[in-house]
Amino acid sequence: MKPGYMHLTGDCRAISEVLARIGDKWTVLVVNLLGGGPKRFSEIKREVGGISQRMLTLTLRALERDGLVTRTVHPTVPPSVEYALTELGCSLQVPVRALGEWALVNQQTMAEARRRFDATCPRAKS
Fold first, then answer.
1. Domain residue limits at 58
2. CATH number of the domain that 16 lies in?
3. In a domain, 80, yes or no
4. In a structure prediction context, what are the per-residue pLDDT tens digits for the chain, which is 126 residues long?
5. What total number of domains does the chain contain?
6. What is the C-alpha separation between 103 and 110, in angstroms, rounded?
7. Does residue 1 lie in a domain region?
8. Strand, coil or helix: what is 40?
9. Nearest C-alpha neighbor of 18 from the set 71, 92, 87, 69
């Protein structure tokens, strides 16, 4: 078996579970945004364009449940709630940024590959 190659069923399930949590569109954007420091809910919603209040609530709750984000309620009127990355959440920034940089570097190459593929395989355009 090659170094770093995961073949065990249990490993695959564990990896799939983690990737399902961190691989969705909103999680990546929220983690990236919180990398700049703690933010209030309204700040996150404003800065993560296109996310609904419900989806942001669900995303933040899932990130908190998984230990990636902390939620702090400040005793003000009305209460102010602030979200921040935990140490684990901060460690997630490294692969998230690397993936984002990879996407930016390779975006045009992938678009060209799609165009070439679609030109030779009309059924693949769906």
1. 9-125
2. 1.10.10.10
3. yes
4. 455 555 567 788 888 888 888 888 899 999 999 999 999 999 999 999 899 999 999 999 999 999 999 999 999 888 889 999 999 999 999 998 898 899 999 999 999 999 999 999 877 555
5. 1
6. 9
7. no
8. strand
9. 92
Q: Which amino acid is at 115?
A: R
Is 34 inside any structural domain?
Answer: yes
CA distances from 73 to 7, 31, 53, 77, 111 (A): 43, 19, 18, 11, 44
> Within the chain, where are the H helices?
9-22, 25-34, 41-47, 53-65, 87-120
Q: Using the 8-state DSSP alphabet, how is residue 95 labeled?
A: H
**What is the reported pLDDT for 43?**
96
- Report the pLDDT value the prediction gives residue 1, as an integer from 0 to 100: 44
| Residue 56 · residue 26 · CB < 8 Å | yes
